Amino acid sequence: MNGCATRAAIDHDEHDAVLAVIDSWNEGWKTRNAALAVADYAEDADWTNAFGDRFQGRVDLLAGLEFIFSLDFVMTGDSAGNTYEDVTFLSDDVALIRSQLTRTGQMTGTGEVMKDRSINHLRVLQRRDDRWVVVSHLISQAKEKGSQ
């Protein structure tokens, strides 16, 4: 029974702290602030975006985001708030966050406006030194059924 009580306490006490990680990521994207976007990422974080680009380590991710944020066609458009944010605690020190947002008005490298993109995020967080950090982040894009 102790495990059940602990699980309820974790869900209640840590839920907001875990979700705050998404806030810094989203604000970093909105303001093109790569340092803010990766502030809650572990030194050994593993990140893969919807296009298959992979960065290993916070330093590598920071450099990658600085480049991505410099591309006006990528940063054009808007990401509304998350459609959903689901948090699951796998243990006292490991949490999963599944979230989805819609990206509107983004452009291709040739200047064409892309269709709205439904972007899914799966993050694995670990509590290290009394703080939640992202250790893995996988981004995928939902495709219309029947599209290629």
The number of E-state strands comes to 7
Distance between the termini: 49 Å
Rg from Cα: 16 Å
Largest sheet: 7 strands, mixed
- Return the average pLDDT rounded to an integer: 86
Silhouette = globular
Shape-level CATH architecture: Roll
Which consecutive residue ranges, at least 5 long each, have pLDDT under 50? 1-6
**Which structural category fits the helices and strands?**
alpha+beta
Text of the CATH class: Alpha Beta
The secondary-structure element order is: HHEEHHEEEEE
Secondary structure: helix percent: 25-40%
Strand content: 35-45%
Individual helix count: 4
Tally of discrete structural domains = 1
Kindly identify the CATH topology: Nuclear Transport Factor 2, Chain: A
Summarize the topology.
Blueprint: H1 2-31, H2 34-37, E1 41-48, E2 54-56, H3 58-69, H4 72-75, E3 78-79, E4 84-91, E5 94-104, E6 117-128, E7 131-142
Parallel strand pairs: 1-7
Antiparallel strand pairs: 1-2, 3-5, 4-5, 5-6, 6-7
